[in-house]
Amino acid sequence: MEKQSLRKAYGDALVELGKQNSDIVVLEADLGKSTMSYVFKESFPDRYFEMGIAEQNMASTSAGLALTGKIPFYSTFAVFAAGRAYDQIRCSIAIPKANVRICGSSCGLSDFGDGKTHQSVEDGNIIKTLPHMIVLNPCDAVEVKKMMGFLVSYQGPAYIRINRNDLPVFTSPDGEFQLGKIYPITEGGDAVIFATGVMVSKSAEAAELLKKDGIGVQVVNVSSLKPLLKEELLKYTAGKKAIITAEEAVKIGGLGAGIASLLIGEVNLPFEQVGINDEFGTSAHGYEELLEKYGISTNHIYNAVKKALGK
Amino acid sequence: MLKPEEKKDLQKIALQLRYDLVEMIGIGAAGHLGGSCSLAETIALLYFHKMNFSADRLKDPNRDRLVLSKGHAALIQYAALCEARCFPREELKRVKTLGGLLQGHPDMSIPGLEAVTGSLGQGLSISLGIALALRLNKSPARVYTIMGDGEQSEGQLWEAAMAVANFKLDNLTAFIDYNQVQATGPTKDVFNIPELDKKWSAFGWNVINAKGHDVENILEAVEKAETLKGKPSVIILETIKGKGFSFAEGNPAYHNGTFTEETYKQALKELDAVKAGL
Ligand SMILES: Cc1ncc(C[n+]2csc(CCOP(=O)(O)OP(=O)(O)O)c2C)c(N)n1
């Protein structure tokens, strides 16, 4: 399947949207070549602010821009975007519902070489807990573009998690991204996998393997980590024999935990969570090695489905 | 320059703001009296003389903005906004109560407030964003930011100081309420920050000193700041924490203190004496 860069999609979308809307401004903390926000600078130098390596200031500055009618997008590595400036996001951005769009780039383990200080296994979980914030976790480049279009007109603060690696394209460019809606990727009647981000493609691979074993799995792309809507989830649990969740994040406070808390008392099905245990990442030569080590590879999903179905 | 009657009017407003502070805090409940009083003259001058501001144009894109980075001094700003008729006087009595409009720290649900502050160190950064947007919009409006001297130990503030200078924003004027007392005691004992003036000028700012309880002197400093182009200006306001109340002046106990019945009466008596002299 064709792979595309989510980061390139982010930068390209900024430029495209910047042409249509002169209120869009972009801020960066010396990582524009990695997050790909720098392409915006080439097109709109006046509307690109290089803030230096100062993420807390960048967060609150974005709030000031938003409160004065601009639509700021700021980006840096997810670990710094969400973690370094947590209180600034909380006080300057989330409380006043400022229209700031935060891009946490190189999320999860996707910055495989740089190790635990640069890998962010908790950014989405942290930001989710802040009232007023929405959290988006696209599974591919096409979804990034659609989400970016959505974010320009959305009113309120938002966080988007972007994977560093090129990922297979699963979604269709048709239609618009709808907040809180979740999207089926494969069909299958035995179990449902609620997956997010890179785990969508991994789950689809697992579903292929399970098909050979005669097990039908429906993979669903949950790209709105927040809001997460019970009614949306229930559409896909009906008639299934097991539920599996898959995320590239620590399990504590993550997608699986969120789904479990929504479905408890509503559906009584075997439930397996694929996610990272209470641990930080580590350096590796390749991304796949890390997914394997942290228990979130295709194989782990395959095994989780089998376990949930008692097979 | 202020005409004599303008000066007197501003002094009267500053006095009224102090009366309002006493009313808001009341007897038995705690409030940030000290760091509010040190700003009474500056706040009076900005809202009632300098700023392009009025209650019927709170969303005017060309209004001047005031961001109170030392958000704990919100009471003095509430008093001024009330005086400017941004909300009814009854709200002052309900400050910090459940269901009241006036929150313990600045909230944007309060008419006239421009930012959420209270977590120290963020106000200058927010002002930087506002100043950048105003410049992009070619707006003549200015941003005024008021910081504390204790607040100067926050790292983010220096990130912002560098950034504002980097972007050469001369539509932003910052103030430091140099009252030399922070929450737990005198700033020189709690966390000494020597040569604040040199620090700011080394970060690329014009540094101007002003007597923070003298409206004429504050105005002179503000006007000077506005004529200096290509660089931001910071005005170091020499002030007294708790100014106006003998028992509170320079006294850390009134950083966030409580009036007893006795000190409450004393406070009003001291304000009445000033009033008689004006
Ligand atoms: C980030 C943060 N840390 C701690 C506090 C608690 N706090 C409120 S006011 C204050 C002292 C502020 O001192 P200063 O800036 O000198 O203000 P002033 O004396 O003028 O009131 C502290 C520590 C806070 N509001 N925000």
From TrEMBL, chain A:
Transketolase-like pyrimidine-binding domain ranges (all copies): 4-169
Cofactor: thiamine diphosphate
UniProt-listed SMART domains: Transket_pyr
Keywords: Thiamine pyrophosphate
Top-level division of the source organism's lineage: Bacteria
Cross-referenced InterPro entries: PDH/Transketolase (IPR051157), THDP-binding (IPR029061), Transketo_C/PFOR_II (IPR009014), Transketolase-like_Pyr-bd (IPR005475), Transketolase_C (IPR033248)
Family: Belongs to the transketolase family.
Protein name: Transketolase C-section
Source species: Treponema primitia (strain ATCC BAA-887 / DSM 12427 / ZAS-2)
TrEMBL record, chain B:
Span of domain Transketolase N-terminal: 17-268
Cofactor(s), by name: thiamine diphosphate
MF GO annotations: transketolase activity
SUPFAM superfamilies hit by this protein: Thiamin diphosphate-binding fold (THDP-binding)
Entry keyword set: Thiamine pyrophosphate, Transferase
EC number, as in UniProt: 2.2.1.1
Signal sequence extent: none
Enzyme class: transferase
Keyword Transferase belongs to the record: yes
InterPro entries on file: THDP-binding, Transketolase_N
Tree of life domain: Bacteria
Family of the protein in this entry: Belongs to the transketolase family.
Name of protein: Transketolase
